[in-house]
Design a protein that fits this description.
281 residues; alpha+beta; five-stranded antiparallel β-sheet; four-stranded antiparallel β-sheet; 7 helices; globular
């Protein structure tokens, strides 16, 4: 059955992502003015826009941004959606008065080139959108549903692996490591390699190949020593089988749970023939 992906389409990215891409032009066409780029709130956070009907677990972007701003800037209250976007995507320093002054200067500079109404309309469209956060850890936001979080001890280790949901529409699940005694997340607490492998129960249904997985942070070029404590995480997929390899110890294998997706409004013009999924030989 076809499902609608929560990944941003070209249309869904307008007007921000369209701004970033310079349009093709000939020598006879004047170069268009550059417009301000309004990036997502976090470079390490996967944020996927949703269809008009929000998917389960989707949160309005404005709510997540305001929650983040209150943690990052105590005493600063955004005065507009433009303030919300800038505070959640750009790091400002100083007292609340200094931050407000920096925001005013930033706005004035962009208004001169692009117009006040255009900027405010862009910011509102972005903040009104719904997103499915991937990479936000349990406890990071009051808007996240902690159902689907699994903590399992790693054999012969004082650490556990923790699985927690990401975007349902993109079938993304996340993994990190936690201290088994405290439950606190930790970064790569031991020598290991995490590999994606074929499903051991039906290897013939997947490509007969394996692949080493890297954390989101390492994938963005951040060195291991520079990852903030407890922030390292991996993006897996629903139903994916992985093996944790540790020197001198037995490998540990696990399979990510499959989340049941509610039936959509799409009706396929097919007759379904009923057969059992599992039988005894």
């Amino acid at each position: 059955m076809k499902t609608t992906s929560a990944r941003k389409t070209a249309k869904a990215q307008e007007p921000y992502d369209d701004i970033k891409r310079p349009r093709k032009r000939t020598t006879k066409t004047p170069k268009p003015k550059e417009r301000p780029s309004l990036p997502p709130a976090s470079a390490s956070l996967g944020l996927s826009s949703t269809p008009p009907r929000p998917a389960p677990g989707a949160v309005q972007y404005r709510k997540l941004c305001i929650e983040q701003i209150r943690k990052m800037y105590p005493g600063v209250e955004p005065r507009s959606d433009y303030d919300i976007e800038r505070l959640s995507s750009t790091r400002f320093k100083g007292t609340p008065a200094e931050i407000y002054a920096a925001l005013d200067k930033d706005l004035a500079s962009n208004v001169q080139s692009h117009g006040y109404d255009y900027l405010m309309d862009c910011a509102k469209k972005l903040m009104d959108s719904y997103i499915e956060p991937t990479g936000m850890k349990p406890g990071d936001s009051v808007y996240l549903d902690n159902r689907g979080v699994f903590v399992r001890p790693i054999p012969d280790s004082k650490y556990s692996l923790r699985l927690f949901p990401g975007s349902l529409s993109a079938a993304e699940y996340c993994l990190d490591f936690v201290d088994s005694a405290t439950g606190e997340p930790v970064n790569s607490p031991f020598d290991y390699e995490l590999w994606a492998v074929p499903d051991p129960d039906a290897p013939w249904l997947s490509l007969p190949m394996t692949g080493k997985l890297r954390s989101i942070e390492r994938g963005h070029g951040i060195k291991q020593k520079d990852i903030l404590p407890g922030e390292e995480k991996f993006v897996l997929r629903d139903g994916q089988t992985c093996v944790l390899m540790r020197p001198g110890k037995r490998p540990a294998r696990f399979t990510v749970p499959l989340r049941r997706v509610e039936a959509t409004d799409v009706v396929e013009d097919v007759d379904v023939i009923d057969l059992p999924k599992v039988i005894d030989p």
